[in-house]
Every structure is written in C-alpha cells, then in structure tokens.
Amino acid sequence: MHYDKMKLSVGIFMIILFVSISGFIYLLLDAKGVFEKHFRYYFVTESAASFSVGMPVKFSGFAIGSIEKIELLDDGEVKITFSITQKNRKWINKYTYLMLKKPLIGSPHIEVLATSGNGYLQPNSKLPIIITDDVNDLVDKLEPVVARLLNIIKNIETLTNELVAKDSAFHKTLDNLEHFSAKLAYNDSLLTSLTGNKKSTKSFIRSLYQIEQTLKNINAISKNLHKDIITPTSNTILSLHQILIDINQKLQTLNPLVKSLGKGQDIQQLKQSIQTLIYKSNILMDKIDTLTTKSPQKVNLP
Amino acid sequence: MKKYFLFFVFSIFFLSCSFSPPPNQWRNDAARSYNLYIKHFLQNKIIPAKEDLQRAKDAVKMGGDISLLATITLGACAIETPFGINTNCQEFQRLLPLIHDQKLSNYYQFIMKKNTNYTLLPNNYKNFAKTLEENDYQTANTLTLKEENPSSKLIMIYLLGEKALPTTLQNAQEVFAQYGYKKALIYALELLAQKEPQKASIIQKKITILQSK
User: Fold this and answer.
1) Which residues, in sequence order, are CB contacts of B212 under 8 Å at separation 6+?
2) Gyration radius (Cα) of chain A, Å
3) What is residue A3's predicted lDDT score, i.e. its pLDDT?
4) Counting CB atoms within 10 angstroms of each CB, which of A12, A292, B147, B154 has the fewest?
5) What is the DSSP code string of B161-186?
6) Which among B21, B30, B151 has CB closest to A287?
7) ipTM
8) CB distance B160 to B152 below 8 Å
9) Which has the closest alpha carbon to A62: A27, A103, A114, A129?
10) Largest CA distance in chain B
C-alpha cells in the first residue's frame, strides 16, 4: 500500500516537472519574441550590394526589426522586405524615411527617421530610402587627425626657433660645454678639472693608496685564517659526520618498532574507515535500488 | 527569468530529495541481498556472494524476524548443498526450534533427501517430489526439463542424482549458460561427463577452460 502512495507521489512529481519545463520553455520563447506579431514593409533600391538578410532596422540606436527577404524584380531593381515588431509599429507611418548607414567601422544598418503620433502605415506598404555617401563619413573621421598634425608642426616650429635664438638655453648649454672642454685641454689631470682644485686631487689619491694598503692587510689575515680556522672546521665536519652515522644506525634500530606500532593503530583505523565507507555506499545503493525497482522483492526458497 | 528558472530547478531538486524509504525498508533490503547472493553464488563470485548473504542476515536481524532469517539460511543451504558446501544446514538447524513453520522444516527434509510431505513444498516441487517418491524418474526428468527457474532446476538435478538423464543435464547446461551461472554450469558439465564417457574428455577440457583464470 505504501508503494501505491509512492507511485502516486512519483506521478504527481512527473506532472509537476513536465508543467514546469513547459512553462519555462514558453517564458524563454516569449522573452525572445517568438510569439510577438511582426508587420512587414518594403523598399526598392537599385542594388542589393550593401544589404543582407538579417540586417537590423534601428530607430535611435534601438533595433526595432530586421530585413527578412531580398528579391530581384523583373525590371532589375531590388525589393527588400523588412519586418517590425508590434510595439515599434508606431514609428512606421506615411512620413517615415529610411536611411542606409554604412559607417567606416562597424556593420551597416538601416536607420528609421520618423516621429510618432502620425498613425500607422498599412502593412506591406512601400517606404522611401536614402543611401548615404561614404566620403562624408571619411571626412568626419579625418578632421581630428589633421588638426593634431597641425599642432605637432607648430610645436616643431617653436623648438627650432628656440634652437636658433642666441640667448636660448640651448646655446647657453653649448657655451658651458665649450668651457669645460677648454679646461680639460689645458689642465694636466681630469680630476683637477672636475674638482677644480689640485689639493682635492692629492687627498683623493692619498685615500686610494690607503684603501690599497688595507686590502693588502686583509689578504695577509685571510692567509693566516686558512691555516688556523680551516683545519678545526674540517675536524668539526668529521665529528658531525660521525654523529650522523650514529643517528642513522639508531634510526635503523627504531624502524621495525615504528612499523609494528603502525600496524596496530593506523591500519585498524583505516579498516574501520573503509568499512564505514562500504556501509554508507551500500545504504546509498539500496536507496537508488528502491527508487528504480518497480515492486518489492521477496525471499523465496530456491 | 533567471529567478524563475532557478526556483523551478531547486524546487524539483528538493522534491526529489525529500523521498524517504518506508519503515520496513529492512525487509526489502534483506530480500534484495538474498536474491543477489543466489545470483552471485551461482555465478561463482564467492566473495560478493558471502557479503550479500551477510547483508541479508544483518538486515533481517534489524527487524528481528526469525522466521525470515530461517528462510534465508535454508535457502542458502539449499543452493550450497549440491556443491558439497553446508550439507547439514547447521545454521538452519539452530533456528529450527525457534520457529514453528512446517513448510520450512518440510523443505529442509526435502533438500536432505529424506521423507517429505510434498503438499507442503513450494508449488514447483510438489509434483516433482511426488514422482521421486513413486520412483517415476522419467516424469521427474520431464518436470526438471520444464522447470524455468535455474536455481530450482539445479536443486532438482541434485535430487535426481544418478537418475538425471543426459538430455536433462544438457538442457540444464544451456539454461545455466544463458543466465551466466558458471558454478551451476560446471556442476552440470561434471555430471554430464559422468553420464557420457565418450564425450568425457571434451567436456573435461571445457571445464578446465571455464575454471582457468
């Protein structure tokens, strides 16, 4: 009897699941506009070169429709049909104009030029279209570039004027350099030219000599170090080596003891954990089995 | 949109997780484990079979149903006896004084090849036990051929013993092979080898191949 209840619950659940999935799919399609009504209009051009099926029809930057069909008429002209959604139908009236916009960067689209409040145009009506020129766009883009170039040229001109003027900073720098090189040419040491003073040069050289002496002393000390310290250090290393050998032997003695300790406790715990895991897995499998089995099983003698 | 979708997903998830098993789930677990034991034992998967039998007994002990425990131990004994295992059904004998079930004790007598009251046996054995009593082995073989349950067929062949005909053994071999009951298949082949000495060597080779790893 309990299983009848279970079957009923499963049935109700399945119905709810089906209804919820259907509802979700409907909401999704509705949001995409599948169920929305579309109104079709058309325009005629000489060439379909800049048009494609699916090209957006925009109003103030918002996509209100798209091109559905492009067909070649018998007289050689091209008839292009586009559709508009119901809520945007108000923009298509008898005063509406279409404009093909072909920006230098980006994909072309059809711009709707209109105002609302002029009544709806009948579906399948013809609308006029204006094809924009590429050159104007190009000029719009190049204008700021040209302005910057002009600015750069002006700056170069200022620089050259500055360079040419005799009282400019550039000329002063050049004069100073000239003095310095003259000094170098007439003085016996570069150092004196730099410091501008022979006494400073001498004291600097004296300091250098002292540094040299100090370095020699250090060298002598390090030679003594080699005899006095290195030998005790090597003795220390030897005794350290002995200690390490001793530790190694002790560890080897301890090893079987550690192993036997490990057998007792860790493996028991591991066994228990595995048993618990098997027990829980069995419970889970029993639950799944109960869900999938149609009717309860019985114990029958073979 | 996203909120609605998530709400539906989680509600479905919680609905499905709220399922709880009935209070006597132990009975279902015991039956399932017992049936799995028989299947694994006949397939010669001994370790899983032992585990399944133990699980079945543990499940029954949770419910405290001694009669059911006795049924399970007797069933295990019945399956194992043809292979020379558990021939005395010791575990069942220990439980026998605690239950007052004539059917079970009668079945036990039947497996031990002792006198039985065939009316108390399961339906598929009634006529078979009667023909054995009357020494009508031809009919007994026919009944064995007709038996569809492979574990019952195995017990019938065991009870027939030397009186089992080669055709009966051949049929049993085919049925066991179909179910994948390797242990029962080898048992039938061994009996067949005894019955048909001219084919014994070939059958023995078959057995060797089946038993090899």
Assistant:
1) none
2) 48
3) 78
4) A292
5) GGG--HHHHHHHHHHHHHHT-HHHHH
6) B21
7) 0.73
8) no
9) A114
10) 79
